[in-house]
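Weekly sync, protein design subgroup
Attendees: M.S., D.O., the rotation student, P.L. (late)

Item 1: inverse folding check
M.S. brought a backbone from last month's batch and wanted to see whether the design step gives back something sensible before we order anything. D.O. pointed out we never logged the input encoding, so this time it goes straight into the notes. Structure tokens as presented (137 positions):
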């Protein structure tokens, strides 16, 4: 059982490859903007919904932040109150400061958030390049 869950955990890091591809694909001449665009979408979905991360929600009773594992930046851990807390906070404008504090409270959450932003930028650059090539052609 232990070996099985370990293999599953390793598998959950597959998206790191997609992220590296999106950020560094620009350096490889064979990789076109179309592939980077796809890599960007895959990377963002991976970080938001699958990347193994600590949950980071506040625990009741001032016990600090939740350390349960969460699949991705958005869903949170298995606890009902933590589920989709990030998404709920995003939709409630007054919660942005709290959300930012939560994301940047730990580098384990801040790093993927920054990487997600970087892959989005890379993807938008790819879209811009594609648009330019279509207009020029
Ligand atoms: Zn939690």
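Designed sequence read out in the meeting:
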């Amino acid at each position: 059982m232990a070996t099985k869950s370990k293999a599953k955990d390793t598998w959950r890091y597959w998206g790191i490859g997609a992220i590296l591809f999106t950020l560094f694909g620009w350096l490889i001449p064979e990789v076109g903007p179309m592939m980077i665009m796809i890599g960007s979408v895959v990377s963002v979905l991976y970080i938001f919904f699958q990347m193994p991360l600590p949950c980071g929600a506040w625990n009741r009773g001032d016990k600090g932040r939740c350390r349960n594992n969460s699949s991705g930046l958005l869903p949170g851990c298995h606890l009902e109150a933590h589920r989709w807390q990030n998404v709920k906070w995003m939709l409630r404008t007054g919660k942005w400061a709290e959300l930012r504090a939560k994301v940047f409270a730990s580098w384990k959450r801040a790093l993927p958030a920054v990487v997600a932003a970087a892959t989005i930028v890379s993807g938008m650059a790819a879209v811009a390049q594609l648009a330019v090539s279509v207009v020029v052609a």
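Discussion: The chain has a mean pLDDT of 89. The helical segments are 2-11, 15-24, 33-49, 85-91, 96-103, 107-136.
Action: P.L. to compare against the previous round before Friday.
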